[in-house]
């Protein structure tokens, strides 16, 4: 396959948590991602007050940026440390509550109510818990999920979006035989088969 030796690669939840604990988060962009600024019009499509989903959000600064524009932001992240760092680095007061439908999960919500971050596995979410979204900013999620879980991930994402939603997806292109990932290489043909 054109994904080289990555097809069988598995990164565990513990490994992701360890990356956060060790500060090994080269994927985090302090200034936000330039492609979101470049394609913001595509995401918003002239609309205001959108619900925007950040899968595997980490502590993405774009969440505050979009919330400050009047959008409602929902993220999911397995690392509680990342979620708490997001709120503290932006000096945002928040409250924390359990998510009754998901054992052990917590939801951290800004006091202003426009940013809600779920701390759990993304696969525990469903539209009955988080609702549906007008837009998705997938900056590092598809390329971070284990290759064997891509279909499951894409099906979940499709179930979370409204009919006229916008989905911005960032991938990386390189020779997958030279790097074990993550980020994983996802060929364009696979993106088309996953998302249609």
Automatic annotation (TrEMBL):
UniProt-listed GO biological process terms: methylation
Gene3D superfamilies, alphabetized: Vaccinia Virus protein VP39
UniProt catalytic activity: S-adenosyl-L-methionine + a thiopurine = S-adenosyl-L-homocysteine + a thiopurine S-methylether
UniProt main location, coarse: cytoplasm
UniProt keyword annotations, A-Z: Cytoplasm, Methyltransferase, S-adenosyl-L-methionine, Transferase
Protein residues bound to S-adenosyl-L-methionine: 16-27, 56, 77, 121-122, 139
E.C. number(s) listed in UniProt: 2.1.1.67
GO CC annotation: cytoplasm
Subcellular location: Cytoplasm
Pfam families (alphabetical): TPMT (PF05724)
UniProt xrefs under SUPFAM superfamilies: S-adenosyl-L-methionine-dependent methyltransferases
PANTHER family for the chain: THIOPURINE S-METHYLTRANSFERASE
The family this protein is said to belong to: Belongs to the class I-like SAM-binding methyltransferase superfamily. TPMT family.
Name the record gives this protein: thiopurine S-methyltransferase
Taxonomic placement: Eukaryota, Metazoa, Chordata, Craniata, Vertebrata
Gene field: Tpmt
């Amino acid at each position: 396959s054109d994904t080289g030796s990555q097809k069988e690669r598995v990164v565990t939840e513990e490994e992701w948590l360890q990356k956060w604990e060790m500060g090994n988060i080269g994927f985090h962009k302090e200034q936000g991602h330039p492609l979101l600024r470049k394609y913001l019009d595509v995401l918003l499509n002239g609309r205001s007050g959108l619900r925007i989903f950040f899968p595997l959000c980490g502590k993405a600064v774009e969440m505050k940026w979009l919330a400050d524009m009047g959008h409602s932001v929902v993220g999911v992240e397995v690392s509680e440390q990342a979620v708490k760092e997001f709120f503290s680095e932006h000096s945002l007061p928040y409250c924390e509550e359990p998510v009754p439908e998901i054992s052990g999960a917590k939801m951290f919500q800004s006091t202003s109510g426009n940013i809600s971050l779920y701390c759990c596995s993304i696969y525990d979410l469903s539209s009955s818990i988080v609702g549906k979204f007008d837009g998705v900013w997938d900056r590092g999620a598809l390329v971070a999920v284990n290759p064997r879980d891509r279909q499951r991930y894409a099906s979940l994402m499709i179930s979370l979006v409204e009919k006229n939603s916008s989905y911005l997806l960032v991938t990386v292109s390189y020779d997958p035989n030279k790097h074990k990932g993550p980020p994983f290489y996802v060929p364009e043909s696979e993106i088309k088969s996953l998302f249609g």
